[in-house]
Amino acid sequence: MNDFKRKQDFITVFCNALRERKPMNLYFLNDHGYNLAQKDPDYGAVLNRADYLLNDGIGIKLGAKLWGIDLDENLNGTDLIPRLLDQCAAYNCSVYLLGSTQETVRAAAQKLTAQHPNLVIAGTHSGYFDSEQSIVEAINHSKADVLLVGMGMPLQEQFIDRNAAALKPHFRIAVGGFIDFASGIKPRAPKVMRRLNLEWLFRMALEPRRMWKRNVIGHAQFFAKVIWLKWNRELHRY
Predict the structure, then answer these.
(1) Where does the secretion signal sit in this chain (predicted)?
(2) Among candidates 52, 43, 2, 47, which has minimal Cα distance to 23?
(3) Secondary structure (DSSP) of the chain
(4) pLDDT tens digits for range 82-107
């Protein structure tokens, strides 16, 4: 995982990459993603091949703290990506949206163009398709510079990694639920909850059946693993 203290630190790196058209695979790591990677080494290898892997959520921040690493800001994609899109517009880089339902992704495209003056949406497609090759060809045909993939973990990162050599957009970003939030169909937590790192609790209240196991049991599994790794390291140090 990359150790950026603030969002602005990464935005500077991103702007340099936009200016130089330097290829980038960007993912975000939360405790759910970490748990998936522990169960699936192949997925762990996908995450490790990312050019940038940014910290997302209070779990990763606290887990890093146990290892003596201070992560000043939560670099979650839902807050960071709108700022990256501002830079895309400034550098005349067009964007392709892949994920969610067709209705949702089209609504997201409309709202994003309204919120980010001069941003060009080169194309959209839902996260449901029969032929991966056809989707890659459609993305390439759009001539987009930036690809946002919102198909959830681990599918989105696996899609980018598997097709990295074939995809023509220089910048490939796994965005989780960003397309749903950008469309306005799925609400975000109130700002006070976000400031207190309680957005996960808000999402669980909205989708208790889907999010309960991931957030309650998943958090416990994450911290148990991090603490065990820390204890095991200390045990074998001497």
Answers:
(1) none
(2) 52
(3) ----SSHHHHHHHHHHHHHHT--EEEEEE-HHHHHHHHH-HHHHHHHHT-SEEEE-SHHHHHHHHHTT----S---HHHHHHHHHHHHHHTT--EEEEES-HHHHHHHHHHHHHHSTT--EEEEE-S--S-HHHHHHHHHHHT-SEEEEES-TTHHHHHHHHTTTT---SEEEE-TTHHHHHHTSSPPPPHHHHHTT-HHHHHHHHSHHHHHIIIIIHHHHHHHHHHHHHHHHHHTT-
(4) 999 999 999 999 999 999 999 999 99
Rounded to whole angstroms, the maximal C-alpha distance in the chain is 59
| Residue labelled with tokens 């994609």 | 77
Beta strand 171-174 pairing with 24-29: parallel
Domain ranges, ordered by start, for the chain:
7-189
Peptide bond into 117 cis (omega under 30): no
Amino acid at 80: L
